[in-house]
Amino acid sequence: MFRYSGPNLLMAGRLLLRPAEATVFRVLLRSTTANLDLKRSAGGNAPASVPPGSIRTEADLPEITLPTILYRMIFKGYYNRMHELQLYEKQLYGPMFKVRGGNGHAISLNSVELLEELMRKDDKFPRRGDMTLWTEYRDMNGLGYGPVTEEGEKWYKLRSALNKRMLHPKDSVKYDNVVNEVVTDFIKRICHLRKMSSTGDLVPNMSNELYRFSLEGISSILFETRIGCLENEIPTETQNFINSIAQMFTYTMMVSLLPKWTRNYFPFWRRYISGWDGIFRFGEMMKRLL
Question: pTM for the complete prediction?
């Protein structure tokens, strides 16, 4: 199974290979041999040809190295256009390829069918990928793990507890009024933005509005209060929270790619940690208000 590392990676599943996951990965390669051509296009640096029907291994996948990643992100301008980079890499390498950088490497899946197949082969106690970046901050500050950062049986117990509150119809119906209020305010905001545009029918940054809508909905259930993401004038604390989330995700990519020894020389790690600081400050403030 995969766990996305941020909004910029929604179009692909990045799986850090750990020993416990090697078997799952081999099963995935075996099952996709018959219906996927993992070779790159004729103009690219294709891996060695694999006879039809044989089992593909990790060595047969095309690989993207750290210098290539940095060149595309910095000099080709993909840093703020990660969705376009995903499409570009899929054209070059196909639906499955290796990405090597930082302290490990990942297998990138650029195919809905592959992601579905991998998720359906998941175990009862899944290992969802390397969340070291998120757990490292919590370890540094003596914070516990949650359903996003836990693994295996501990994750299963947390998720089971959440399922009883969130997924049962008789329990989830308790949130219908809250959700309806958020949806209504979101529609009002979209109508307002359209009227304020130069053409009278354009929402300037729809992805940002959807992000604010999602955050407002989640917070309304999690904190049992509205935090003002859909207001025309967003409260200062809420705006700082939004900025902190964006900052954390923005620097996640660079921090994950660069070796640990670079943290004292480049600003990425400090800015990444600063983003988490802002997120937890807001969380602590909301806890005091409950």
Answer: 0.68
